[in-house]
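anyone seen this seq b4? input:
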Amino acid sequence: MTTWQYKSNQLYLKQMRLVTPQIRIVEPRYHRLVPYPDNLVDLYRIYGKTDSLDHLPFYKATFTSEKFHLLGFDDKNAYIEVTGEVCILPLRKISFEDKNIVDLKEPSIIIIANHYHLTDPSYEQLGFINPNKQYVINVKTALENKNLKYQVDSNKTYRRLEWRIVNEYLFNDFLYTRRGDV
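predicted toks r here
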């Protein structure tokens, strides 16, 4: 590549550095599209970072939110009920809001996430995909819920919330290659 070609294609080269198996299942090689290995694609599918999705102009984010029943807190974790199962989420991942952001008739947390999609479906012909998971931005609860205590059963194993909802949501700072129980 000549210096002129390099300089005139800076935007393209910068964007191509962001393309990973998280958003594209094939890579261009020698004038054809070659599929990434399945195990690499699977690994990237549980990668919760959104750097490439946020900076590529052909992806758009839509805000979503979902409410879960909050059972209470101990010194380190929040205890949340998800379809009858009690899960834990570290307190450091929760924002306490002093305004009424959740229905106080029932203590709740709200997961706020981005759902990304391609702005132009023709990119699918180039191997780009619409991610099927939502990427968590924030987890919020009302400040009034902070004093809600949960009696921990020491004989019980609690599953991490990140593992319980991995089919729908990805947390960007959670290592999904570890076991889901605590």
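Residues 3-170 form one domain. The chain is about 15% helix and 35% strand. kinda curious what u guys think
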